[in-house]
């Protein structure tokens, strides 16, 4: 029986302290983001509202949990965030499984994103690279390739300094100790960008933008 299970778990008080500490770390990180990084996120939303309707493309990449965040972002752009609108071009590079495995097999795993940036990216497009450590070699290679191909590079990382932040044009760096907290703040940041993107589209009177039924 699972009724009243929380009353019978051994070590419940220590686990509750751990859970409370996790929540406090998240709250503190949110406060720091709100204080100093909202202008960057609103600027990213505005920039995408100029780029994507004009035929530009967003490429996104990450590893592990950051891969899930990257794919979440592209889904919000190809699908929708809140307001009903047409879809926009956004690709999560790790989700191209045949390309990833072929490139990894033929060129090595460090090239799995860079090769796709070279194939899909065009001057003026944007690469969003997500890494909690900022040290993933495949993302560093992707960022370098994007710069060489004329793309903008937006990095979402943990604390600076880190190599990915050093090569990016714009950086959202999360001041947090735990990897989980960084990932949770990245998701919040992506939602803020999407919300600002929709708002900027509305200001530009993008055709077909309306509230969902």
TrEMBL record:
Domain of life according to the entry: Bacteria
Pfam families cross-referenced by the UniProt entry: SIS_2
Chain ranges of the SIS domain: 48-207
PANTHER family linked: DNAA INITIATOR-ASSOCIATING PROTEIN DIAA, SEDOHEPTULOSE 7-PHOSPHATE ISOMERASE / DNAA INITIATOR-ASSOCIATING FACTOR FOR REPLICATION INITIATION
Full protein name: SIS domain-containing protein
Origin species: Streptacidiphilus monticola
Record lineage: Bacteria, Bacillati, Actinomycetota, Actinomycetes, Kitasatosporales
């Amino acid at each position: 029986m699972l009724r009243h299970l929380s009353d019978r778990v051994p070590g419940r008080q220590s686990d509750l302290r751990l859970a409370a500490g996790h929540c406090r770390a998240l709250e503190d990180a949110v406060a720091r983001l709100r204080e100093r990084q909202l202008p960057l996120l609103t600027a990213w939303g505005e920039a995408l509202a100029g780029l994507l309707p004009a035929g530009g493309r967003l490429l996104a990449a990450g590893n592990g949990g950051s891969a899930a965040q990257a794919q979440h972002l592209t889904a919000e752009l190809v699908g929708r965030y809140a307001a009903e609108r047409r879809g926009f071009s956004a690709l999560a590079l790790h989700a191209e499984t045949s390309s990833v495995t072929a490139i990894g097999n033929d060129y090595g795993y460090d090239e799995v994103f860079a090769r796709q940036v070279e194939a899909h990216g065009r001057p003026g497009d944007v690469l969003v690279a997500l890494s909690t450590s900022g040290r993933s070699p495949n993302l560093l290679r992707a960022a370098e390739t994007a710069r060489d191909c004329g793309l903008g590079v937006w990095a979402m990382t943990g604390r600076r300094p880190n190599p990915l932040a050093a090569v990016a044009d714009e950086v959202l760096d999360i001041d947090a100790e735990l990897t989980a907290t960084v990932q949770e703040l990245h998701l919040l940041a992506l939602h803020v960008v999407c919300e600002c993107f929709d708002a900027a589209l509305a200001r530009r009177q993008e055709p077909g933008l309306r509230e969902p039924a």
